[in-house]
Amino acid sequence: MSLAELKKNNLRWVNISEATKGEIDFLRNNFNFHPLDLEDCLVSGQRPKIEKYEDYIFLVLIFPVYNRETREIEPSEINFFIGHNLIITIHDTKLPPVNELYEKCQTDDEDSQRLLSHGSSYLLYEMLDKLLSYCYPMLDHISIDIRTIEKQIFAGYERKNLSELLITRRNITDFRKIMQAHKNTLKKLAAVIKDRNFSTSSKIKIYYNDLIELSKEIWDHLGGFKEAIETLQDTNESLISNRLNDIMKTFTTMSVVIFVMTLVATLFGIGAPGTPFLNLPWAFWLILMLLIVVAMGMWQYFKKRKYL
What we know:
Order of helices and strands: EEHHEEEEHHHHHHHH
Shape: rod-shaped
Radius of gyration: 34 Å
Number of helices: 10
Strand order of the largest sheet: 1-2-6-5-4-3
Distance between the termini: 73 Å
Structural class: alpha+beta
Largest sheet: 6 strands, mixed
C-alpha cells in the first residue's frame, strides 16, 4: 500500500498517495468514517466540499497542476479527514507540497516540532498554505505568457500567435474553474475549525483568515488575467480582420482595373470599321501602351481615394 504514517507530539498523520481499494479498506477497518466519504476518496473529479461529523471533518479540495507535456492546467484532488490529534491526507502524486511537507516532518526535527505540536488544524493550515502558494508559479507563468502574446500581436504576428492565445485563454478558464469554490469552502472550514477547537494555537482563526485572503488574491489575479486575455483576443481578431479587409480591397481594386483593361482590349478586338489604330503597323504596341496608361491611371485614382 502507498501509505505512510507519522506519529509525534500526540498527533497522527496518515499520508496516502494514489489510493486504491486496499488503502480504503485500511481506513474502513481502523477508523469510524462514513462509507460514502471513503467511497468518495476513490472517485476523482469531485467538487470541493466539506462534511461535518461529530468526531471528524471530511474535506475535499481541488488544486491546479501544470502538465508540461500537454501545456494544460489540470485539476488534482486531495481529500482530508481531520479529527482531534488526527489528520489523513489522500491524494495523487501530482501535488508535491503535501509529500514534501511529510518528508520534512520525518527528517527535520525542528520543522517536525513546529508543525506537529499545535494540533491537526495547524498542520492542515500549513498544508493548505503550501498548496495555495503552489499556485503562484503558475500565475507567474500565465502573466509572462500574456505579456509575450501582447508583444507578438503588436509586432505583426497575430496569425502565428493565435494558437498561443487560445492555449493561454484555455488555461486561465480551467484555472478559474478549479479555484472558483475555494473561498467559500475555506470560509466554511474556518468556521468549523473554530467550533471544533482542533488546535492548541490561539492564532488559528487568524491563520485560516489568511488562507481565505490568499484564495481571494489568487482569484483576483485570475480575474485580471481573464480580462487581459479577452482584450488581447479581441485586439488580435480586429487586426486579422483589418488585414483581411486590406487584402480584399487590394484584390477588388485589381479586379476592377483588369475588368476595364479587358473591356478596352475587347473593344479593339472587335475590329469594327472605324476602330482607331488598327491599320497602323505598330497598332499592337499603341493598344498595349493605352492599356498600361488606363491601368496606371485607375490605380492612381484608387490610391488617391485611399482605397488602397
